[in-house]
Known about the structure:
alpha/beta, FAD/NAD(P)-binding domain, nine-stranded mixed beta sheet, six-stranded mixed beta sheet, 22 strands, 28% helix
Amino acid sequence: xxxxxxxxxxxxxxxxxxxxxxxxxxxxxxxxxxxxxxxxxxxxxxxxxxxxxxxxxxxxxxxxxxxxxxxxxxxxxxxxxxxxxxxxxxxxxxxxxxxxxxxxxxxxxxxxxxxxxxxxxxxxxxxxxxxxxxxxxxxxxxxxxxxxxxxxxxxxxxxxxxxxxxxxxxxxxxxxxxxxxxxxxxxxxxxxxxxxxxxxxxxxxxxxxxxxxxxxxxxxxxxxxxxxxxxxxxxxxxxxxxxxxxxxxxxxxxxxxxxxxxxxxxxxxxxxxxxxxxxxxxxxxxxxxxxxxxxxxxxxxxxxxxxxxxxxxxxxxxxxxxxxxxxxxxxxxxxxxxxxxxxxxxxx
Length: 348
């Protein structure tokens, strides 16, 4: 049996961001996760508080939370060695007036061209998800295995994996849309059972289609600046509630590609695309589930589609709770899903 200060189950963006934050604060951290790509790798890596707040028509307090996490990203990227690129995001065509009104409501800087009906904001940024996951995992002990069960023994949590047992006084669950692990307290299992799977389909191509992020109803096109597809583009993305199938639905993919050509304003043509699918978790109110659930157990779950944007906020909040400090963002308290009348977010 091996031991650590903190064990984190899950190696997606919430799990590795939290691991990096805790490691930088001087904690010994062990991450348990199989050596397979997480849903966080199947993403465009957009850090987009302005566009996300406008598209979803978020309540003011939620938009403010996205702004806060965007501010935290600058320091977090420097501390972890992540290449965070400021990048304009442009909305084209139908819905532009709605997006503009929402940006005005939330005080996001933007410009609007009435003649072309395009809106541009410089408040968003972008990173490469695969590279960023690698950077956050540096210096972290990693057990490439599946967590099969957990149980409490004295003042420690024991995590049973296919590669042995690891022990720690603190345990963080960052397991995405996966089912509850055997041995968790009933209340925690109920919290996890409330998570809704959401499939996202994206396409990646080696062709450069745009130098900055373009968005419209039904599609986005974003440049890829790192990794094996550097110099290419990403086309996305679906939000399919309740779907767990990782096999891309080609009918949906073709519809998304057609919307992307329309967004680009060019005639459709043959293009080589690799389609990918990722399953994310969403809470009933659309906001993550983050915090202390008792006896040294913490959760960082249900990122929906803003896991990358919210990662520094989630990581800093969990570090504060683990270290016994005050917590700034009570909106994410995971216990709220046990009381359906106490929902402060928005519907997924």
